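Predict structure. Chain length: 124.
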Amino acid sequence: VQLQASGGGLVQDGGSLRLSCAASGLTFSTYTTGWFRQAPGKEREWVTAIRRGGDGTYYTDSVKGRFTISRDNAKNTVYLQMNSLNAEDTAVYYCAAGKSILSSIKNINAYTYWGQGTLVTVSS
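Prediction complete.
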C-alpha cells in the first residue's frame, strides 16, 4: 500500500495551494481518508477527513471555510484545496486512510496507512 502526497510548496500569505494524495495497493473507495499536518516543534494534528463515498466532510475549526477536501475514487486520489493561507498553516501535510473510523476521524491512531508528507510554507 502506498499513499503519495504532492502539491506542497512555498506560497505567499493569502495564497492557495492544492494538495493531492494518490493511493495504490488498496481498495481506496472503502477507506475514509484524511489530512493531518505537523508544524515545526508541534504535534501532528488532524485537519480534515472525507467519508469513503465522498458524502461527508469534516474540518477542524481553524480551516473551515478556507480548506476543501474532495476525492475521486475512480482515480484513487484525495485532494485538499487550501485557500486564504496564512503563516499558521505552515506545516508538513500528511494524507492518511483508515476503515470504520468515523467515530474517531480526529484520532491519529485510527488511520492505518500514511503518505510521506508534503511541505507547505506560507510566507508573510
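Summary: The mean pLDDT is 97.
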